[in-house]
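Good morning C.,

I know you're traveling, so I'll keep this short. The sequence:
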Amino acid sequence: MFCPYCGVSNERWEAKCFVCERSLPSLDAPAAASPARARAAARRETSQPTIASVGDRLIALLFDRIVVVAILLVGGAWAADRWSGYRFQPTLWSAAALGGVIFVVAFLYHFLSEVALLTTLGKAAMGLHVGVEEDRNRLAAIAIRNALRIVDAIGFYLIGFLFATFTSRRQRVGDLVGGTVVLDWPVPRGGRAAMMVLIVIIAVAAVWLASSICPTCGGQAIPSVLRH
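The tokens, ready to paste straight into the viewer:
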């Protein structure tokens, strides 16, 4: 039986949902046909948001990574044009510095977006936003959840995926420590489509702007960008 409030599958004989702990409908009542329909019914019956699915969060993360890569692409083109005569020597320190720059850019993108709007372009496109527990400071909670992406991202986000899959409120390490949870929030389809179009525009504009800033950089790649 699918819980009509959070969409989680429960055993038929359980009286309460093991995730949201709300009373389940009687066995005589018609059960929801699918988790998606259960979540839709929950939105109609209650104003409380439901916990976002891991799949939606992964897609939102992919969209957000497109935006982060676009920012890095423009920044990399500017740096390559500014120091065009400098001979880059790949070392452990230079790799660490590059990784640090990538982490800082990703952190600032997520942190500033979530502090201001409780969402990012990727999350908005999937109809998601970040909820902060009542006893937590919003600024500190969001800073912690995004700083700990460095832990969740281990193994191409394997750690974050496992925690989000097996914790009751689908929280990755950053959410558990920061006291946050990612929630579904009703966003009109037109609004979500507009966010997706905006992400595509940002990606295309980044490629055009980078080629304009550094026309000779067409054959050069920014190392490791897509791995973060």
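Safe travels,
E.
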